[in-house]
Amino acid sequence: MIAQPFIYEINTWPWLAELGTDLAGVPDDVWDSIADLGFDAVWLMGVWRRSPAGIARALDEPAVAQSFQDVLPDFTVDDVAGSAYCIRDYQVDERLGGTVGLVAARKSLAERGLSLILDFVPNHVAPDHPWIRSNPEYFITGSVDDLRDDPESFVEIGGTVFANGRDPYFPAWRDVVQLNTFSPALRNQVAQTLLSIAEQCDGVRCDMAMLPLDDVVTRTWGERAGNPPADGYWPTAIAAVRRVHPDFVFIAEAYWDLESRLQEQGFDYCYDKRLYDSYAGHEGADAVRARLSADTDHQRGLIRFLENHDEPRAASTFGADEHKAVAVATLTGLGAKLIYDGQLSGAVRRVPVHLGRGPVEEVDKDLAEFYLSVLGSLRDPVWRTGDWAPCDITGWEGNTTSGSLLAWTRRGESRWLVVVNLSDSTASGTVATHWDDLRGSRFRLVDTTRDLDFLRSGDDVCDGMFIELDPWLWHLFRIDETETTTEERV
Question: What does pTM read for this prediction?
Answer without folding.
Answer: 0.95
